[in-house]
Amino acid sequence: MGEGLIIQVKRSKHRGELRSGFTTGACAAAASRAAVHCLLTAELIDQVVITLPNKELASFQLCRLERTPEGVLASVIKDGGDDPDCTHGIEIQCLASWHSQPGIHLDGGVGVAKVTLPGLELPVGMAAINPVPRQNIHDMATAEWLACQPEQHFQPGLKLEIRVPEGEECAKQTISERLGLIGGISILGTRGTVKPYSTSAFSASVRQSVQVASANQLNHVVLTTGSRSERSAMEMLPQLNSMAFIQAGDFVGVGLRAAKRYHVDKVTVVAMIGKLGKMVAGHMMTHVSGHAINFSLLADIAAQHGADQTLCELIANANTGRHVLNLVSEHFPDRNHHTFNMYLQDLCCHAAGHATDYVADKVMIEFRLIDFDGCLLAQYPS
């Protein structure tokens, strides 16, 4: 079931040190591995070890493991660590059963949302199990399949159904329905572990990172909104010291104010369309529970650059920032098209203008928009 260094969620012995937890995706992968193990071997176990997407090993205590007429049902209780979200403490289940077709067939059951609107990482109609946890579940089930003898394979394939009994109720505390995620929660997580993103603790870390950069005579810092944008920023700005790159997450505003306070000359903000879409309207704190994207404003800016009425109406009624970018990209498949370039550059311009006001014009501000592969789409100043 796995060897090597195994991490477990533990409460810190030191007051003030926040405890990490696990994502819904990691919990689903753990439940899936346990269910498949029991289906193949008939062995009843009480804990399971998986490899997380970040390549660490993690041990999970099982909440249940039982054989049913439908298959084997396994589950774990999600532990979100300190400062948990609404999914902390809920049961994440997997029902594993045989499938007549080869391969692993994954779907969502009760409490897992269905995608009903475009603009997300998944197509309409699919269960909201995001690509990274989807792959993690698949990998853990495959590991069990390959560990067994062929005579233990009673059918050519496996069916896995992820269930979250409290998912629909839990989703009422999120904006999932607004994004077209209906019937439950999404199964998420790009690392497998949850860093405790306490508002006060995380904003303090952003502020402190800027202070440290300034104290080390770095007059140019780069605020990124996540790990993908940070990787892209480092590739675009290889001349900068690694200390200059600060993952600000939803707290770009905190980083900007800190840059002003600690006399940093220049800030480059590197973001994808979802966060940028909020900053275009002047919202420098971009958490999902805060301000939504002003799609009418994005449509008005498109109109100013000659976009036709059909496209503007589609933008005004878009579902997410990703959806806006998809619409514009489909309308202008040539990324060198003048309107495409000027529109995205103007979004950066609007965000940079608001950011400059945010720091009372005391810091030089640059914005760069990247796509979901980390490629530069637009920047201001150009």
From TrEMBL:
Pfam families: CbiD (PF01888)
One MF term in the entry's GO annotations: cobalt-precorrin-5B C1-methyltransferase activity
Family: Belongs to the CbiD family.
Source superkingdom: Bacteria
The entry's keywords: Cobalamin biosynthesis, Methyltransferase, S-adenosyl-L-methionine, Transferase
Pathway: Cofactor biosynthesis; adenosylcobalamin biosynthesis; cob(II)yrinate a,c-diamide from sirohydrochlorin (anaerobic route): step 6/10
Gene3D superfamilies xrefs: CbiD-like
UniProt name for this protein: Cobalt-precorrin-5B C(1)-methyltransferase
Species for this entry: Photobacterium lipolyticum
GO biological process: anaerobic cobalamin biosynthetic process; methylation
Catalytic activity, as annotated: Co-precorrin-5B + S-adenosyl-L-methionine = Co-precorrin-6A + S-adenosyl-L-homocysteine
InterPro entries per UniProt: CbiD (IPR002748), CbiD_sf (IPR036074)
